[in-house]
Amino acid sequence: MKENEERYALLIDADNVSAKYIKPILDELSKYGNVTYKRIYGDWTSTQHASWKEVLLQNSISPIQQYSYTQGKNATDSAMIIDAMDILYTGNVDGFCLVSSDSDFTRLASRLRESGQNVIGMGEAKTPIPFRQACNIFTTLELLLEDSTSEKEEKAPVVSAAEQTAQKAGESDVVSREQVEEAVVKIITENQNNDKETGLGEVGSRLVKLYPDFDVRNYGYSMLYKFLETFPKLKVIREGSKMSVALYEDPGRRESLEKYIVEQVQNSGSVGIALGPLGNKIHLQFKDFKVRDYGYSRLKEYISSIPSIRTKGEGKQIRAVFEDAKEKDKEKEKEKEKEKPKKRAGSRK
């Protein structure tokens, strides 16, 4: 762990969060720093938490037993709050990640922030506004799960010789090449959205946070950059002694993809086509399509970037509509004119 790397305590309310979110939670938290505490609270004698028991050992999360003394009362809240304050007073962390969809942790989040802690909240879409506002950052778990699900390969993963050797030796948990590639693509996309380049050092650091046992030697390489150069979606850029990693883009493939998208939207008429069905059509035509490969984290943003297409609507009602490129340029010009400050009355033109 780097000296200046922030340390976080991850505290999960098992009564209000599903086990299916654990990987997206850990992936997201790895962006902020090193997780030094991993605790989850619930009544582990209850069959309600059976799904959690399977993932605790895999992710090194410590279960804290809290019996439900009174029916209808959430007994885990008090245990989680007491532990949070105990950890706070040790002075061993820089921040907390509170995972719950319950507003009962609103005061805890506020109290931790008052003590100078960075508080990251995570919960389902139903999480009340008070808890969201009490955190420095709040992330909706459904969005994290959507990101994680979109990254899964439909085809069977290709296993390298080094991975096969490790598996024969009983180390079947070696992270696959596909997982590594998709993780790096995600890192680059996030940085692109913030107008940042991705240094080789950052890639190595983030991969270790995601997969603590990650080692390029497992794949038959001694240097990270040589390993990354083997991935078709990535390219390593050298500028003197400085190295950065970017997405490799095949101009011909992108041209074919966007031509296909325009045709589908244009054929849908003036009503347009919903993004869901459009996404399905794209995946059927281009089996390995992933919007992250083109520098976007959402399909809506990528579709909107195509000159002759615009999107309208919100949520599940978003539709892609064909629009003449010239008309789209005119709309952009109108928006720019609106943003310009109005001239003072009486000023010369």
Protein described:
This protein is of the alpha/beta class. The chain folds into 3 domains: 7-150, 5'-nuclease (Rossmann fold, 3-Layer(aba) Sandwich), CATH 3.40.50.1010; 161-247, 2-Layer Sandwich (Nucleotidyltransferase, domain 5); 251-336, Nucleotidyltransferase, domain 5 (2-Layer Sandwich), CATH 3.30.420.610. Helices cover 42% and strands 17% of the residues. The chain has 14 helices and 12 strands. The protein has a 6-stranded parallel β-sheet with strand order 3-2-1-4-5-6. A 3-stranded antiparallel β-sheet has the order 7-9-8. The chain has a 3-stranded antiparallel β-sheet with strand order 10-12-11. Residues 152-159 and 165-172 have low confidence and may be disordered. Residues 321-349 are annotated as: Disordered. One of its GO terms (molecular function) is RNA nuclease activity. This is HTH OST-type domain-containing protein.
The CATH class of the largest domain is Alpha Beta
Provide the gyration radius in Å: 24 Å
Question: How many discrete structural domains?
Answer: 3
Order of helices and strands: EHEHEHEHEHEHHHEHHEEHEHHEEH
**Helix run count:** 14
- Structural class by secondary-structure content: alpha/beta
CATH topology of the largest domain: Rossmann fold
Mean pLDDT: 81
- CATH architecture tag of the largest domain: 3-Layer(aba) Sandwich
Largest sheet: 6 strands, parallel
**By CATH's scheme, which homologous superfamily of the largest domain applies?**
5'-nuclease
Give the helix level as a range of percent.
Answer: 40-55%
Roughly what fraction of the amino acids lie in strands? 15-25%
**Order of the strands making up the biggest sheet:** 3-2-1-4-5-6
- Low-confidence parts, pLDDT < 50 over ≥5 residues? 152-159, 165-172
Distance between the termini: 60 Å
Domain HTH OST-type: 176-251, 253-325
Organism: Marvinbryantia formatexigens DSM 14469
GO molecular function: RNA nuclease activity
Pfam family, one: NYN
